[in-house]
Amino acid sequence: MQLKIYISIDDELRATRVVSTPCTIGRSKNLALTISHPAVSRKHCELVEEGGRLFLSDHGSLNGTVYKGKMVEGKIPLEVDDTFSIGEIQLRVELCVEKTSDSSLPGVGNPAGGNETDDTANTVIDIPEPNRSNNDDLRLMDD
User: Fold this and answer.
1) pLDDT digits (tens, 9 = 90+) for 84-93
2) What would be the CATH architecture of the domain defined by 2-98+120-142?
3) Strands 45-50, 33-36: parallel, antiparallel or unpaired by DSSP?
4) How far apart are CA 81 and CA 68, in angstroms?
5) Is 64 in contact with 84 (CB distance < 8 Å)?
6) For residue 4, what are the contacts with CB-CB under 8 A and spacing of at least 6?
7) Which end of the chain is more exposed for a tag (fewer CB within 10 A), N or C?
8) What is the pTM of this model?
């Protein structure tokens, strides 16, 4: 199953990635989706497909994975367009629709025409912690 994941902080879209299931999400660089952020554990959570349905599970992460305001325990079913959180990071999951083979035609594969960018080339997403970067900037100005 191919998924498109929209990664946001404070409702500001930071990145999108196309991944296949199973998809392990965490800080480690050898995972399907790596998010470099202090709230994310090395191997944080996983998206898997079973019987045509999508499931989310937490891998015993320090900060946990939150879905609909509750900590994820065990394996829970997700619906398309559902959002879950890792700390302040929101991840919205969308099912990818198979693209037609000729994406060079206007309106085919890309509504604006032309070629789409392949988001799968780089799965590492570096999201600086907002408070820490702001404090560092302030300290530099004080010096």
Assistant:
1) 999 999 999 9
2) Sandwich (2.60)
3) unpaired
4) 13
5) no
6) 16, 17, 18, 93, 94, 95, 96, 119
7) C
8) 0.70
